[in-house]
Amino acid sequence: MVKSLRTTSPKKFKDAKKAYAQVYKIYQAQRAFMCDEFESFSNGKLPKKKIRGFYPYARINVTEQNYKKLSSGKRYSYGFVSKPGVYETTLTRPDIYNRYYVEQFEHLLENHDCEIEIGVSDTPIPIHFALGEDFHLESDLSDEHVDQMPNLFDQPDLEIMDDQIANATHLVKEGQPNPLALFTAPRTDLSLMRLKHYTGTNSKHFQNFVILTNYQFYIDEFIKMGEATIGKDGYTEFIQPDPSARTPQMSAYHLKRDCGMGITMINIGVGPSNAKNITDHVAVLRPYAWLMLGHCAGLRNSQELGDYVLAHGYLREDNILYKDLHPSIPIPALSEIQLALEDAVQEITQHEGHDVKKVMRTGTVATVDDRNWELRASIRQNQRFSQSRAIALDMESGTIAANGFRFRVPYGTLLCVSDKPLHGQLKLPGMADSFYRERVNQHFRVGIRAMEILRDIGPEKLHSRKLRSFNEVAFQ
User: Fold this and answer.
1) What's the sign of the alpha-carbon dihedral 393, 397, 403, 407?
2) Mean pLDDT, to the nearest integer, of 460-472?
3) Digit-coded pLDDT (tens) for 19-28
């Protein structure tokens, strides 16, 4: 026996904002119903039936008659389906995705002259997701209530939270609609909850331009900048983790602008596991770009400590994404990102044209999963680095770029050489301190300037067709 709220019939719209308003209405009603029932439960009133709320859905039916082939000159690489058919996705958190949903609906209406149907889906909302990021079951309920919950409220179901759509392994069953978006509502909600857990900040604060770093020094500079920039250059607010709470695993900081056009910086720590973890979750927010701004080992004798490395290819030996995106699949460089990074280096360092080569090399970055790779036998790995023409090595960049490719998020990498183990210059305390004092601030300013350049370019030019597959979903 189930108690649910099923009072809303499906409605069709040819206006994107009205379609979004219906999504908002359904979601808020379903969530409010669940939260009210949960409050009664937590106050000791045991429900006689299982309580169930449902996500809203969006569906389009693109017939042969209203299917339009888009010209190759179309500005956007998304916003249309690859063939006639029925397409559907579940939706969540319209408070966060308001602009995103409206934009996606507008493209569908423009490209296919169809109606967008909004209704109540058959996918339950897990109670954890309905309660939101700031509710903690362990501290807010008794042990008895926690034990009773699975019988009375839906729990997260991992079977409907995988990445098959993004990985292009999803098979549509006969009679079922095609996917309209990369992520279902439950998969999205899981990531929104995980973002709060790992970064110490709510998902609503994340901005569309994300810098990922593996050193706290960059975060320190970003905090100084953030606190000094509020009210200037369109920046309205600076958000950071609560200093009185536990230190999060991967702290995030948000320099906010209207419409999410500010900059988020996250200290992802060291290693490909962290890099995959955080980008798995940031991806559901559909950022316009993410960059890796970190340190690396220089592999060429001609490099100096403090030189920059602009990655245009990756030797991926992170051993974390091989099941989702095999290392044999190339990760292309994206021209808009590459040019923005190069322009930022020129502007900040005051080197122009051919002189940029004095401070920056463009080439392949090797990403490995062993921090002490230097201790392995050198013959095999040196040969591999040489054959790949790698000029630098780190533990995160290849993973971040590969996940950007996998999730259709524009990506780029600008590293700074902090040691040269193959040439006797190891990362030791004294050397590191000197290096950080001299180079961190400039590298940081290059990363910020690159994001400003990308913001000026605009999202419609950043979402390259290189990121889209044969049978692509319509949502960006």
Assistant:
1) negative
2) 82
3) 999 999 999 9
- pTM, entire model: 0.93
CA distances from 387 to 317, 366, 371 (A): 14, 11, 21
Model pLDDT for residues 37-73, shown as the tens digit of each residue: 998 888 888 888 899 999 999 999 998 887 765 554 4
Q: How far apart are the first and last CA of the chain?
A: 39
Q: In the structure encoding, which two tokens stand for residue 62, read together?
A: 């693109």
Closest CA to 455 of 290, 256, 288: 288
Task: List % helix, strand, coil for the chain (3-state, nearest 5).
Answer: 40, 20, 35
Tokens 């729990």 found at? 155
What are the structure tokens assigned to 55, written together? 């996500």
Whether the Cβ atoms of residue 337 and residue 412 lie closer than 8 Å to each other: yes
Q: Which domains does the chain have, with CATH numbers?
A: 2-192 (3.30.1730.10), 200-467 (3.40.50.1580)
Distance (Å) of CA 193 to CA 98, 239, 243, 400:
18, 18, 20, 21
